[in-house]
Amino acid sequence: EVQLLESGGGLVQPGGSLRLSCAASGFTFSNYAMTWVRQTPGKGLEWVSSISGSGATPYYADSVKGRFTISRDNSKNTLYLQMNSLRTDDTAVYYCAKAFALGCSGGTCRPDYWGQGTLVTVSS
Amino acid sequence: QTVVTQESSFSVSPGGTVTLTCGLSSGSVSTSYSPSWYQQTPGQAPRTLIYSTNTRSSGVPDRFSGSILGNKAALTITGAQADDESDYYCVLYMGSGILVFGGGTKLTVL
Fold it and tell me: Could you state, in chain order, the average pLDDT of each consecutive group of 10 residues for chain B (110 residues)?
């Protein structure tokens, strides 16, 4: 059974940093790209970032490019999202998701299985 | 910037059929956008229903189906049930690894 467990969320001041983690189990982690999606409370879903199975190829939404860094440690079956220069509009529940394939061509980085999410609140 | 459009809300009677759509602010949706559909109930993580236009995810009942209708992707629910009352989101692949979600449709079954 695929399981994804996010952690690292919390309250941070504007301009601060936070690192999210996503521990994966139930599948061969290195064989799949992974994706972060966020959801502002009461609003819709927003794709944030994806990374190929090898970790060599990251992709970012324009809204986070230059501030967020996605990475993975295949030896630990863990996905990360380093978030710097946080803004109030980054406040959201952040979901980790397993993608459909090793890479992201043809849209295969879209979410297949989802974690339960971790809440990030950016506020002074 | 391309916007993915969805109806903000829809209602269907129990046992009825409803089609939700997913379009583009400019242009037509085709299979090359690899549309996918997700269902989300309040307080829960999304659940994958349909991927690659019309492939049902594991465990999804066959009353959920995906297609291209005209210039939009479509999710059709046949024989709607009370527990289908949820938010439904589509996502489109824009190329270069970029995904864009629609704003979601709130479906009411009454």
Answer: 94 97 96 96 95 96 97 98 97 94 97
